[in-house]
Design brief:
The protein is α/β, with parallel strands linked by helices and about 500 residues long. It folds into two domains: about 10-260 and about 465-485, Aldehyde Dehydrogenase, Chain A, domain 1 (3-Layer(aba) Sandwich); about 265-455, Aldehyde Dehydrogenase, Chain A, domain 2. It is about 35% helix and about 20% strand. The protein is globular. The structure holds NADP nicotinamide-adenine-dinucleotide phosphate.
Length: about 500
């Protein structure tokens, strides 16, 4: 770890099952690496089916008592969890930066973002009201109760190791569900630290269980097959999401799938160009472009194309690339060798199809480390519509830009994707704002705004970007089902 922590005990390297910190049943471990240096700084359990089953048993065992715990008491525990997370924000941010690579300010920022979900759902826990339905027939009373779905399996990715866990576990616990969780193998230490703080906050044994593994399919298969696991909540790639949807059909689980995106970013000629550049900087380069809502295709109307490119290039060229431990760093390393190979492939493909590299376009610091995973923030101009980077998530600090002529044309281009997570556009024409907002096929629209996520807002996609919503009042509904009760003979 490249940082000194105030609370060294937050670095836990064991599973947490039934309230007991423990190694894998096999005794095996997998390494956790710092992507900035490639150094291994910890080992976590390499769990298998046995550990996965033990976690489900614990969650099943704990469910009845947890669902019967008054909502106000569950809320108080979540509130304490939020307070502990915020009290340890610096240490947790350092852990994120060490295993994920994002600059420290972003790591600490992610902790505040993660905690905001815990606080939000602590409050929502006490408002999971049902409905009294107006009498339809004399002598009957009808009501709809909201009940927790049961045991929830949560599987999360590496790009937001704290936020993705928090926005699944907090609503699940608020609703009265118990949880088995598997974090990404690249970033388990953040997840374990959060679970440790949940234990300190008073989450009872068995209510929250975490299993680490280098064989995610083995663990997930146990949870998919077990009919007592009533819900899978997954954030990650579309192929894995589709696999989980297919396999969970055997036990008809409730599903929430937060999958990949391919966000368009459209700048109309009536937009404030400076604001649009700032919005693109915020949306594209956060976490080095490794976000699911990050713009992957930039369309600029021809009249302002040159001016926009000039301003964007100036801003991108000034970004500071370096390790999370350097306070000046704005862009950290990519997560691993596979990630940087994909970025190189996309840039080379775009250039081969005629794109111009206005800044960046290469790997950095290879003289210090041949396997360096740092990539220079890049602007590509005149990108052909057939280029790979317009069709697949690049997941890196590359902004590919092209020009368009008409609103009709750009809406067709924006919607010409199997994905539908986020879209962004900049315009100062109020009628256009309403037309374009309605026409875009996606779950999230940023209008003259590049930073869209918030705990009070519903986050999620359509089409191949998945279904289900996280955050907001809808985020709690995902973990509850409705029980309709009809009582007769009252006349
Ligand atoms: P990934 O490969 O799908 O991995 C996500 C999680 O699934 C990891 O915990 C992974 O474990 C696990 N996994 C992999 N194969 C599995 C299988 N067969 N069965 C069960 N679990 C399996 O995705 P990623 O590369 O880590 O994450 C990046 C993707 O997440 C991008 O597409 C991004 O857009 C998407 N994302 C979406 C959102 C959203 O809210 N829509 C937010 C963030 C990220 P291992 O770590 O062991 O492989």
């Amino acid at each position: 770890m490249s940082f000194k922590l105030q609370r060294e005990d937050l670095v836990v390297t064991r599973n947490f099952i039934a309230g007991v910190w423990q190694g894998a049943a096999s005794g095996e471990t997998i390494p956790v690496n710092n992507p900035a240096t490639g150094e291994t700084f910890a080992f976590v359990p390499n769990s298998n089916e046995e550990d996965a089953r033990a976690a489900v048993e614990a969650a099943v065992e704990a469910f009845d008592a947890w669902r019967a715990t008054p909502a106000k008491q569950r809320a108080a525990i979540l509130k304490r969890w939020n307070d502990l997370i915020m009290a340890c924000a610096d240490d947790l941010g350092k852990i994120i930066s060490s295993e994920q690579g994002k600059p420290l300010a972003e790591g600490i920022g992610e902790i505040a973002y993660a905690a905001s979900y815990v606080e939000w759902f602590a409050e929502e826990a006490t408002r999971a009201n049902g409905d009294i339905i107006p009498q339809a027939v004399r002598g009957r009373k009808m009501a709809a109760y909201r009940e927790p779905v049961g045991v929830v399996a949560a599987i999360t990715p590496w790009n937001f190791p704290a936020a993705m866990i928090a926005r699944k576990i907090a609503p699940a616990l608020a609703a009265g569900c118990t949880v088995v969780c598997k974090p990404a193998s690249e970033t388990p230490i953040t997840a374990l630290a959060l679970v440790k703080l949940a234990e300190e906050a008073g989450v009872p044994a068995g209510v929250l269980n975490i299993v680490n593994t280098g064989s995610s399919k083995k663990v997930a298969d146990v949870w998919l097959d077990d009919a007592r696991v009533r819900k899978i909540t997954f954030t990650g790639s579309t192929p894995v999401g589709k696999h989980l949807a297919h396999e969970s059909s055997r036990t008809l689980k409730k599903l929430a799938l937060e999958l990949g995106g391919n966000a368009p970013f459209i700048v109309f000629e009536d937009a404030d160009v400076d604001a649009a550049v700032e919005g693109l900087m915020a949306a594209k380069f956060r976490n080095g472009g490794q976000t699911c809502v990050c713009p992957n295709r930039v369309y600029v109307q021809s009249k302002i194309y040159g001016r926009f490119l000039e301003k964007l290039t100036e801003r991108v060229a000034a970004l500071v690339v370096g390790p999370a431990s350097d306070p000046a760093s704005q862009i950290g390393p990519m997560i691993n060798a596979k990630a940087i190979a994909k970025i190189e492939e996309h840039v080379n493909d775009a250039v081969a199809r005629g794109a111009r590299v206005l800044t960046g376009g290469k790997r950095l610091f290879t003289e210090q480390r041949a396997e360096s995973t740092y990539y220079a923030p890049t602007v590509l101009a005149d990108v052909d519509l057939s280029a790979k980077c317009f069709h697949e998530e690049t997941f890196g600090p590359v902004a590919p830009v092209t020009q368009f002529e008409t609103e009709e044309e750009v809406i067709r281009l924006a919607n010409d994707s199997p994905f539908g997570l986020a879209s962004y556009f900049y315009s100062n024409d109020i009628r256009r704002v309403h037309r374009v907002t309605a026409a875009l096929e996606c779950g999230i629209v940023g209008v003259n705004e590049g930073a869209v996520a918030a705990e009070a807002a519903p986050f999620g996609g359509v089409k191949d970007s998945g279904y289900g919503r996280e955050g907001s009042v809808h985020g709690l509904e995902e973990y509850m089902h409705i029980k309709y009760v009809c009582q007769g003979g009252l006349d």
